[in-house]
């Protein structure tokens, strides 16, 4: 009987290859296979581009398709099938790493796999990564949260909803993920609350195309990329 | 005239020396001075113990006292004095790194220095680190947030307040920092909402003394250490 392998969920951080941890690099070089999730066959993996330089040249890289849509039934079937494929490798004694952007416990594909892998009795370990919102705050030079305040993180996905307005009303510090999904709706809610000067957006943070947006008009005109994060800090005025 | 130096706020992550980034290690070895914040003279710096093995032996290490209390006036005077000391070094042309637990933009001493340093025209760069709540989630094997949900982070500090109860009522996923500050009060609020099975606490995460607590009685009996983080996930039942 062969010993089972271990499945590692490895956070590779938000973008910059230097924001990868020592532990991530160690694990990515010690396993038998590194899985890179991709949206569609033939597409590049952003997560892989971050860690490529850290992984030894002869590592076995396996691309695995995880569609990005809102059809939950279809997605769940795909997650289950992918989990079964992974469990097979683990039961054959392979150690497998799964790379994921940012942190594996914050909006990641890895988290969707976990329940299935637990069912299939796969031993796993999660390696934390730098979140996009921490990098965003560092790029605008303003803390997400201080002192006795709290902060919240909400995704935009299909558009502004009650979760978003509730966050805007009840928190001092708000991070909005994927603001490009409903720029105009979001801009309206920000203006309605007089928070135009209390917000900043960083797009493509940590890449050569990074841009910082502090002008609400840019948001209103829907001119922000998919890889953007918005921070609202009610106690702070962002200068343009 | 000498060129001014640069001030680096370096997140060293929550505990495990392997959860330090490549960038943090690079900067900590390239500067002239590494500042370690300590609470009192003679006390050890936890942040320094994390990065010690990564820093070259001849690096100049400077301990700087940042008291931990709730007297804001006293603290602000100290922050200003420390910022002036740092600005002096920077204006003498030195590059200085300031290490901080977790991420520099999430409840860190570094964030309190920043406004003073900006006034003093110090050029700075912030290096993101792994947050304690990401590590906490990885240790209990449960995502902080998925899909279209949001999450919030609130500190306990002086005890349960409206911020905490508001978070418990309005969010699916809640992180409570420093739950040891009011264990009983927090336990009562959790029980009141029937969330006893939806919570887990990780204390001293990533150290050899790490412990995972899923039993509300332990919280009620105030048996949790200072370095603890509590996660509530309403859609998930933590097994004891």
Helical amount of chain A: 25-40%
| Biggest sheet features of chain A | 5 strands, parallel
Radius of gyration of chain A: 19 Å
Question: Span from first to last CA of chain A?
Answer: 65 Å
Structural classification of chain A: alpha/beta
Regarding quaternary structure, what we see is: homodimer
Extract low-pLDDT stretches of chain A: none
Mean pLDDT of chain A: 94
Name the biggest interface: A-B, 60 and 59 residues
Strand content of chain A: 15-25%
Q: H/E order of the elements of chain A?
A: EHEHEHEHEHEHEHEEHE
State the total count of DSSP E strands of chain A. 10
Count of DSSP-assigned helices of chain A:
8
Sequence of strands across the biggest β-sheet of chain A = 3-2-4-1-5
Overall, the morphology of chain A is: elongated
Descriptive overview:
The structure is a homodimer of 240-residue chains. The first copy, chain A, has 240 residues and is an alpha/beta fold. Helices cover 33% and strands 21% of the residues of chain A. The first copy, chain A, has helices spanning 22-30, 46-51, 72-91, 109-119, 132-140, 162-170, 183-192, 216-220; strands at 7-11, 33-38, 60-65, 96-100, 124-127, 151-155, 173-177, 199-203, 211-213, 228-233. In chain A, the strands form two sheets. Chain A has a five-stranded parallel beta sheet, sandwiched between helices. In chain A, a hairpin with a 7-residue loop joins strand 8 and strand 9. In chain A, helix 3 (72-91) packs across helix 4. The longest helix of chain A has 20 residues, at 72-91. The first copy, chain A, is elongated and about 65 Å long. The first copy, chain A, starts with 6 loop residues before the first strand and ends in a 7-residue tail after the last strand. In chain A, 49% of the residues are buried. At the A-B interface, helix 1, helix 4, strand 5, helix 5 and strand 6 of A face helix 1, helix 4, strand 5, helix 5 and strand 6 of B.
């Amino acid at each position: 009987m062969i010993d089972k392998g271990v499945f590692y969920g490895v956070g590779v951080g938000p973008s910059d290859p230097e924001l990868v941890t020592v532990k991530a690099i160690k694990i990515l070089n010690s396993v038998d296979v590194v899985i890179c999730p991709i949206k569609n066959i033939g597409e590049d993996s952003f997560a892989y581009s971050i860690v490529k330089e850290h992984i030894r040249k002869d590592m076995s890289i396996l691309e695995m398709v995880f569609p990005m849509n809102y059809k939950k039934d279809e997605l769940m079937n795909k997650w289950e099938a992918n989990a079964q494929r992974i469990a097979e490798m683990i039961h054959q004694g392979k150690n497998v790493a799964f790379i994921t952007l940012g942190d594996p416990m914050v909006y990641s594909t890895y988290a969707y796999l976990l329940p299935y892998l637990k069912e299939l009795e796969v031993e796993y370990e999660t390696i934390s990564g730098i979140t996009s919102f921490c990098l965003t705050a560092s790029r605008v030079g303003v803390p997400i949260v201080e002192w006795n305040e709290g902060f919240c993180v909400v995704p935009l996905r299909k558009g502004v909803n009650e979760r978003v307005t509730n966050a805007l009303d009840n928190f001092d510090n708000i991070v909005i993920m994927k603001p490009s999904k409903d720029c105009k709706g979001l801009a309206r809610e920000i203006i309605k609350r007089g928070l135009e000067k209390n917000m900043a957006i960083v797009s493509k943070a940590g890449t050569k195309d990074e841009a910082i947006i502090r002008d609400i008009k840019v948001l209103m005109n829907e001119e922000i990329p998919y890889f953007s994060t918005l921070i609202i800090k009610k106690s702070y005025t962002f200068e343009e």
